[in-house]
Amino acid sequence: MLTNGPPGATPDPAMRIGDPERERTAARLGQALAQGYLSMEEYETRVGRAFEAQTAGALNHLVDDLPVARISRQDPSRRAALRAAARRGVRIHLGVYLAVSALMIGIWLATAVSVGEWYFWPIWPMLGWGIGVVSHAIPVGACAGKGRRTTGGS
């Protein structure tokens, strides 16, 4: 639903709306499509109507039958799920990095023993990929820390 005033206030359905309200409704419809609440045809129809709408009531009618709280970007369970998915992505990235590093060290050891050359060449791909893993983990860790502070203080 559209709100202009204090939280929980519902605008007059006859109140005229502008592009920011239309764009917020279109974004909410896009979230509903992404989460499977709307088919592509229904989404296209509703978005077209959203950009043609002139009043708050017309926009509200487009999202009345949708679980607005579930598709909201501010839903705490949605944010928690996104943080968990990001952490899981870092763990997968780290796991693959460690597995490939172990494989490269095994190849190095086998060739070093058989040929007698002990130059540790796996350090270069491990360093390069390690920078990528760290670059992935730092923002995820920062966002997770920020999310804990935000939810803990509210």
What does this structure look like?
With 154 residues, the protein is an all-alpha fold. It folds into two domains: 19-74, no CATH class; 76-133. 73% of the residues lie in helices and 0% in strands. Helix 1 (19-34) packs antiparallel against helix 2 (40-52). The radius of gyration is 25 Å and the shape is rod-shaped. The two termini are 23 Å apart. The model is unreliable at 3-9 and 149-154 (pLDDT under 50). The chain crosses the membrane at residues 96-120, 126-145. InterPro entries: 2TM_dom (IPR025698), DUF1707_SHOCT-like (IPR012551). Residues 15-67 form the DUF1707 domain.
Structural class: mainly alpha
Distance between the amino and carboxyl termini: 23 Å
Rg, rounded, reads 25 Å
Determine the number of helices (DSSP H or I, runs of at least 4 residues): 6
Kindly give the count of domains: 2
| Main sheet record | none
Low-pLDDT runs: 3-9, 149-154
